[in-house]
Description:
Elements: E1 2-10, H1 16-32, E2 38-43, E3 60-66, H2 69-77, H3 81-91, E4 94-101
Antiparallel strand pairs: 1-3, 1-4, 2-3
Helix pairs in contact: 1-3
Amino acid sequence: xxxxxxxxSFDQPLPDAELDQYLTDIERVMLDSGAVQSVATRRHxxxxxxxxxxxxxxxxxxxLSVADMDALxxxxxxxxxxxxxxxxxxxxxxxxxxxxxEALA
Length: 105
């Protein structure tokens, strides 16, 4: 099993409803791909002063569980994935860092 953990950082703060919709859209399109075993999304929990750190600071975390690297490639190549990403990027630009790894626990 492979975990694909994405750190999503929007360029500007989003209203709560917008962030909720982004996370719902990503979760839905990934599950609809048929290649993802599970999706977990969470909001970043900020700490005071972190905005002074010169690093990519998350807005949210998205973690996909897939059987293997082929399934991960299939998930990101599935119909609708790039449309959802493109729609959100055009409305609310964001950056993503990610890591592919075995389960941490």
